[in-house]
Every structure is written in structure tokens, then in C-alpha cells.
Amino acid sequence: MQLTWYGHSTWHVEVGETDLLIDPFFDNPKTDTDPEEVDADHVLVTHGHADHIADADRFRGAHFVGTPEVIEYLTEHYDIEDGTGMNLGGTVELGDAYVSMVRADHSNGLDTGYGASGGMPAGYVISNTKPTQVADEESTTFYHAGDTSLHTEMRDVIAPYLEPDAAALPVGDHFTMGPWQAAVATDWLSVDHVFPMHYDTFPPIEIETEDFEREVKATGSSAEVHVLDGDETFDLGDVVDV
């Protein structure tokens, strides 16, 4: 499983022969990539704020997944032709990937407007095997938390049952978790690898990533913190024991 961070909350996840893109927003200071250069069979949308859907229309040929409210909005306003609405707790099979929608605690005004709601915001757990209650040591699993605050479902559901090997967590504070809450999330999730995201895009979310690294260490977590450069790829398959 290959993970590429395009800044903010935008990730490309390659699972086998399947290309997933999460929260397409390329107008951020961490990336030099033109969206036209990115392959996407499926686009996962965590919520409807502009900094997560702004480039959705650049991927009209892809299949979109999100809450029914967000998919309806993208269909009407971004001319998306192929979309699947799902909701929290559900799992869909997308090519070689299994994608589970999980809780995120955040707001969800469409295009950052406050007159219409996109339903519940979400995160996604992506795996190359179908999630069950029985632990699967052959799986490789990545958790994209979306925009969220700290919540106990990370500890009580996502960690023990979906068993992510790695997590991308928002750390920019102000609109989401900051470094200390994201560090607690890292510890609760029991992941081996964690990637900070959703920071340095706008003045209110500018941070020092060293603060996050220090806070993770303070929890006693053994997770390795990977502060990626924009457009950098990390091969999760190289570091997961199967």
C-alpha cells in the first residue's frame, strides 16, 4: 500500500491495482502537483468544506464516495457523474480496497457554507482485506481521520476492530485536533506509523511539527512519526509485518 500526501488532507492511496484519492484540494502550499497528473479510480470525501472538495471537478471521471448529502451536492454543483452515498459504520469494496466510513467530530457545512449540511463528517479506514472481528495478520490498513477532534471511538472501535497500521491525523489545531490531542489519538489507536496532516495551509493552523513529535513521545506511544514533504510517497507495505 503506497501513500502519497499532497498537503492539507489530500492523500493518494494505492491498494493493489486500485487508486484512491481522499479530499481533493491541491491549492495548498505543500504541493506542486497538477491534479491532472493524479490517477484516481475512486475519490473519498470526508466532508463538504471547500478545503476538502475544491478540486472535485478535476476528477469527474472517477467514482466518488461520501455521505449521501455530500454526494448529492457534488453531483449538482460539481457535475460528478458517478457517486455512492454511504454512512458511518458502512464498508464498501472498491477494487482491491475495502473502505470503512468511521466517525469524525467536526462541522460539515457544504463548501464551508453554513446554510446547508453535508450530514455527519467522516474518516476512512482503508484495508486490503475485509474487516471482521477476527484479527487478520495479513492485512495492511491505513486510517485517514478526516477533520476531527479527539474521540473515544478511536480507542474503543477503530483500534481494536479495524486495527490500523498507520494513521493520518489532523494536527493544525483551531479547526481540528492540535498536537497534544492528536498525540493522544496516536496512542489510543496503537498504530506503528503516524502522519500529521491539515496544518500550515492557513495562518490559524500553522504549527511546529516538532510539537506533535514531542507530544507523541510524551504519551509513551512507540509510533514512528513521519513528517512528509508535500508530494512525498511512503510505502506502507515496506514497514508492515505480514
TrEMBL record:
SMART domains: Lactamase_B (SM00849). It comes from the Archaea. GO terms for molecular function: hydrolase activity. Residues 7-198 form the Metallo-beta-lactamase domain. The keyword Hydrolase applies. Gene3D superfamilies: Ribonuclease Z/Hydroxyacylglutathione hydrolase-like. InterPro entries: Metallo-B-lactamas, RibonucZ/Hydroxyglut_hydro, UPF0173, UPF0173_UPF0282_UlaG_hydrolase. Keywords: Hydrolase. It holds the Pfam family Lactamase_B_3. Transmembrane segments: none annotated. Belongs to the UPF0173 family. This is UPF0173 metal-dependent hydrolase ACFQJ9_09315. The lineage of its organism: Archaea, Methanobacteriati, Methanobacteriota, Stenosarchaea group, Halobacteria.
